[in-house]
Amino acid sequence: MGRPLIIGNWKMNGSLKGSEALIRSIQSALDAQGEVDLCICPPFTLLSHVGSLLAATEIKLGAQDVYHEDSGAYTGEVSLPMLKEMGCQYVLVGHSERRQYFGENDASVAIKVAATVRHGLTPVLCVGEELATRRANRGEDYVLAQLMAGLSLLEGEVKEIAIAYEPIWAIGTGQAATPLQASAMLRAIYQLARNKVPAGQVRLLYGGSVTPENAAGFLAAEFVGGVLAGGVSLKGESFAQIASLAGSKTYV
Question: Does 60-195 carry CATH code 3.20.20.70?
Fold first, then answer.
């Protein structure tokens, strides 16, 4: 799987003063970054500030969402050229909270994924099922349908894409999937995605109640190439602990 990718999604949290303290905390707690790619996705209002704080580090900057048009009368939206100007390299697309609270669907997610690739940024396509769907033994079919839709508009060469399996029943609940469950779903995702994107350009992540205590199990699983962390990324020492753990070994 190559170098692991660890992404911290701050969601709607943070302030100018608080983000500076958090970045300092992460940096001071990192013994050495090692063989790992780190990315932080702050709110739009903090992209410029956090980007300047990360400029002297190897940590990359990402956005939590994007609109697919380059410019225009789209009040409240942020475009890919704007994100590139801020120095973003990654963009979360189709996060379960965007789907649940803001009406995003497979069609809009597919447009965003294609636009992100077209502008040279790496989309982090998020897919995942609800607990009822898993209990009905339809979890894999549901997730793979999301994946097929998300990748459906890709054309030409794709430099890189990340796919994050984030079971909805595990997000913010403290009830993480097991490493075996995560690996099994990511294996199915990988087999389908490689038909659309060259295998070496797909990065597979797990997201959902990741902690320093359970991260080792996920990172050791065969098809888990990193994690998408939510709440724990707001705790500098804990996030750095996960990053250091991932960087201590290149998972192949």
Answer: yes
